[in-house]
Write a structure and sequence with these properties.
homodimer; about 350 residues; alpha+beta; Glutamine Phosphoribosylpyrophosphate, subunit 1, domain 1; 8-stranded mixed sheet; 4-stranded antiparallel sheet; 9 helices; about 20% strand; globular
Amino acid sequence: MALNSKFFGSIILTLLCLTLLSHGNQAHAQKTNSVFGMVIHGGAGTILKKNMTPELEQAYQVKLKEALQTGYAILENNGSSMDAVEATLKILENSPLFNAGKGAVFTGDGTHELDASIMDGKTLQAGAVAGVKHVKNPIALARLVLEKSPHVMMVGDGAEEFAVQHHLERVSQYYFYTEKRWKSLQKRKNAAVKKTTMGPKKENIKLTDKEEGTVGAAALDKEGNLAAGTSTGGMTNKMFGRVGDSPIIGAGTYANNQTCAVSGTGHGEYFMRLLVAYDIHALMAYQGKSLKEAANTVIMKKLEELGGTGGIIAIDKDGNIAMPFNTAGMYRGYIRENGEAIVKIYQDKD
Amino acid sequence: MALNSKFFGSIILTLLCLTLLSHGNQAHAQKTNSVFGMVIHGGAGTILKKNMTPELEQAYQVKLKEALQTGYAILENNGSSMDAVEATLKILENSPLFNAGKGAVFTGDGTHELDASIMDGKTLQAGAVAGVKHVKNPIALARLVLEKSPHVMMVGDGAEEFAVQHHLERVSQYYFYTEKRWKSLQKRKNAAVKKTTMGPKKENIKLTDKEEGTVGAAALDKEGNLAAGTSTGGMTNKMFGRVGDSPIIGAGTYANNQTCAVSGTGHGEYFMRLLVAYDIHALMAYQGKSLKEAANTVIMKKLEELGGTGGIIAIDKDGNIAMPFNTAGMYRGYIRENGEAIVKIYQDKD
């Protein structure tokens, strides 16, 4: 009896403290309409300083800053987080430095297949496309699916036809060609130890920055609305028809005004099995974890334990930013109210 | 200081009690290897007794029982939950009564496009296919993707080629034809108020049992392993290339030995935006909710509030079963250790 009353007393005291903490958070959230910001990534992998030339490093930094400043200009000017995410991702899609849009990797068939998704944290509306071959900016097509179709996801020729109907800019497959990616495919094909017609075995899949990658953005606007988007060229030498996490709502992309906006990059199959982006939201919503705690739990613990590699970028409803990854490096950066673009490539300790 | 020590003391006491409770649960889980069972659905929608003939009602009941007994025979004989789910779903795919495999609905283009997914709760491995046109049993192809490819999801021609490489039974599009579904398409096309080349507007999408539906199964085997699978012919008159929730891990299908196995049916776009199947897991894992509480929260509250319709079937690691839906009816049933197949169609009060 004495133990019981002590136990219930302790529960009540704990709940009281949690309630006070939670009220504090709510009060904080209500007064933050001047808070805004954006966080982006350009892929995670074995990105090491020793393998990088100063020129290439600078090229990445310049492009990441340009992308951040594009988003910032929209947010600063009272634009929406959805507009900021789309505009920012177009900059990265149009750059041959990243595995998305121009610069996309090759499938095992020697073609390009592009995937993208976008989610609006205010309405929980989402749009996604997979396996498109002739759309210059897949992120724009994902947004069209969100806004102009009754569907969330469209793939292949159907997605392509939808782009035609909406007069979206289309390009030949040759537009996506870069010599670097073509050489990656040849190298990968030659290196395959156990080549089978069914593609590489599970155990032969290793993630490197040359073969994988994605671009992603998450933004909080002055209205307190969150949005996230992701775009990718997939995986070098993948079987054609393979879809990774980038166009999967909850795996590679998720946004919810209640908590945060997230975009992921890495070995997509693991992100799909773990529902990485949604899981960060769920840990915040259901366990009251902070963005940093939730993101670290999912990337540094759950992804790591399952054997997956990659990272995420995220911003929460209060403007907090997280960018954890368990690879050697991740192209990443963020920008806040003051307009200073912070860009990083390697692990923070480097 | 006094408050602090009291507070930390209370936290430690709470943690101690939670640890004891959790140990109790583990002990319970370890001794339940005689518990097993299976739960299935054949789609949710405006299924009303007044619109049903006794013959048709009986046909549904007979087929649902056959499916349950097929899964039961495997589980009873120490088979795996993965085998039970696949075998059960093949029965439903092969029946023209349900919108999956034979009996699939038509796209706006007059073709059939099939989607399916399966997940192993022990390993969190998953396999999914979307937009396949010539595979007799899409659930078998989803399992092949899980077992024989390094990927989780394959779509369109790539998925089709993978089926060819693995000698899976393929059929012509005509195999999927049923007069009932063809008439539904004509009716739907004629009824479209605002026909555009881009397909129906968001507000014109209404869910009826004639146009939607899915089949799904979730099983717990004697080893305590959970598995879930879902298969569908999609949505009548949908734009070709549209992918719904059935092949999306976390939306239409999810299994995790830690909590439960879930398969959903309904207006897929809402299931994708809410991550319905994963959300039930998350509420159990992160908030300690029971399967029933978690499933009701997601279907009767969150789905309802967002304006979506449908239902789920689920079984948890202790063999508890849940089958909530917010439509007039859902073809559903379950079977437990005693081998008695319980089948229902309408709301429980009917």
